[in-house]
Amino acid sequence: MISVDDYRERITALLGTAPATSLPLAAAAGLVLAEDVLAGVSLPPFDNSAMDGYAVRAADVTTSPVTLPVADDIPAGRVDVGTLEPGTAHRIMTGAPLPPGADAVVMVEDTDRGTETVTITAEAREGAHIRRTGEDVVAGTVALPAGTVLGHSHLGLAAAVGLAEVRVHRLRVLIASTGTELIDAPAPLRHGQIYESNSVMLAAALRELGCEVDVVRSVVDDVEEFRKVIEPRLAGADLLVTSGGVSAGAYEVVKDALTGQGVEFAKVAMQPGGPQGSGRWQGVPVVTLPGNPVSVLVSFEAFLRPALLAALGHTDVSRHQVRARLTEEMSSPAGRRQFRRGVFAPSGREVTGVVGPRGGPGSHLLAAFTQANCLIVLPEDVTSAAVGDEVDVLLL
Ligand SMILES: Nc1nc2c(c(=O)[nH]1)N[C@H]1C(S)=C(S)[C@@H](COP(=O)(O)OP(=O)(O)OC[C@H]3O[C@@H](n4cnc5c(N)ncnc54)[C@H](O)[C@@H]3O)O[C@H]1N2
Ligand code: MOO
Q: Is 67 helix (H, G, I), strand (E, B) or coil?
């Protein structure tokens, strides 16, 4: 009998690190970066306006009001912006490139909105409402380090620095349920048959972790048939996970087909989920789970999930653990780690912590967002918050 911890280590070692592949950004959510993402461009890529208004030289707008001729009109997307001559203004929109020669933007609200000439009623401060090249990300630097778990903000940043694809760890898993008794709904059940459910659970659980899955819904308990169905699909898989056919009886199709083929069958000191098998078949890692659905789920939690997460490049592979008081008595077999399904209700106060802002308030600072794990919420009636104040935090 092998311990749960030793078996988890065995499966983790068997799965190793999943191969890296390039995937379109839209297909990479939840996966882990296999390589640093280098910024192909700076963010912003050029000095641009943070406001709809007028680009000026601050030195021309030191008194109020000042009237200047409007020499050009610059919507966002213009690629041929000319120099701002002293004593003139260019009408400019948010995100439009700042004309050379301009060193400030005046908000349209502080003007008469003129198109031939504009009268400005506020002083222009040098640098005002200008978003500088590279303020968020500098071209050639690491925008996202290898190991990043790609959430939506990371994918947005990858897109913003010019990537169409990212290199991620990907695991293609072939899932196969075995059992002559298994039937797929909506076919009617005959006495002695059951509806297949393990492959559905495993496929969903593995997809949720970011695996690509190929599913063989049910294979009959026949060694020849098992080999015939599974072998041709092995080439496209980084891992084979089976359910059923591994215990002590006759007709143990998985055990019979894979014994002596590189897969070792053992008892793990846990309950449920005792009978297990693992190894390599034709070079492909194989994990054979017992057929009882709860055994499948417990096996997934006890060793498959952490091993898969590690293979996919995650460093946080454990479920969050808390302590709680038992509300009913329980018994457990000697020498086995029992995994009983239970209902946990939290008690006591929520844990609190400290929080600080990351990056400036600008709405274009995407990189800072990717480094954040929460949103600090200051309500409408708060204009300042001091060190030590309590604030609302939304965890991401
Ligand atoms: N003599 C012994 N018998 C059994 C032992 C043992 O040590 N000695 N171990 C028991 C334990 S514990 C388990 S767990 C099971 C494991 O058996 P198998 O892995 O061979 O699984 P099967 O016999 O194929 O199926 C078990 C059970 O689960 C149902 N099943 C199977 N696949 C599916 C599926 N895809 N969807 C839904 N349900 C499925 C199957 O019909 C059986 O009822 O062995 C014990 N026996
Ligand atoms: O070890 Mo089995 O998985 O209890 O039903």
A: strand
Every domain range in the chain assigned CATH 3.40.980.10: 4-19+170-311
Residue 86: which of 57, 129, 52, 121 has the closest Cα?
57
Contact indicator for 341, 293 with CB cutoff of 8 Å: no
- CATH architecture assigned to 22-43+137-168: Alpha-Beta Complex (3.90)
Centroid of ligand 2 to alpha carbon of 119 (angstroms) = 82
Q: What is the mean pLDDT of residues 280-294?
A: 96
DSSP-assigned letter for residue 60: G
Q: Which of 222, 235, 238 has its CA nearest to residue 287?
A: 238
Buried b or exposed e, range 87-103, using 16+ CB within 10 angstroms: ebbbbbbbbbbbbeebb
Residue 292 Cβ contacting ligand 1 at under 6 Å? yes
- Parallel, antiparallel or unpaired: strands 239-243 and 284-289: parallel
- Cα angle 158, 95, 120 (rounded to 5 degrees) comes to 160
Cα-trace Rg, the chain: 31
Fold of 48-131: Molybdopterin biosynthesis moeA protein; domain 3 (2.170.190)
Instruction: Note the pLDDT tens digit of each residue in 163-208.
Output: 999 999 999 999 999 999 999 999 999 999 999 999 999 999 999 9
| CA pair distance 109, 132, nearest whole angstrom | 22
Identity of the amino acid at 364: H
Q: Is 275 in the pocket of ligand 1 (CB under 6 A)?
A: yes
Residue 131: helix, strand or coil by DSSP? strand
Helix (H/G/I), strand (E/B), else coil: 383? coil
User: Mean pLDDT, the chain, as a whole number?
Assistant: 93
DSSP category for residue 300: I
- Considering the domain delimited by 4-19+170-311, tell me its CATH architecture: 3-Layer(aba) Sandwich (3.40)
The DSSP string of 50-108 is SSSEEEE-GGG-SSSSEEEEEEEEE-TT---PPPPPTT-EEEE-TTPBPPTT--EEEEG
Chain centroid to Cα 322, Å, comes to 24
Per-residue model confidence as pLDDT tens digits over 244-277: 999 988 999 999 999 999 999 999 999 899 999 9
pTM of structure: 0.88
Residue in 319, 312, 365, 3 with CA at minimum distance from that of residue 173: 312
Nearest C-alpha to atom 5 of ligand 2 is from which residue? Answer: 272
For the Cβ of 299 lying below 6 angstroms from any atom of ligand 1, the answer is no
Over residues 329-350, mean pLDDT: 75
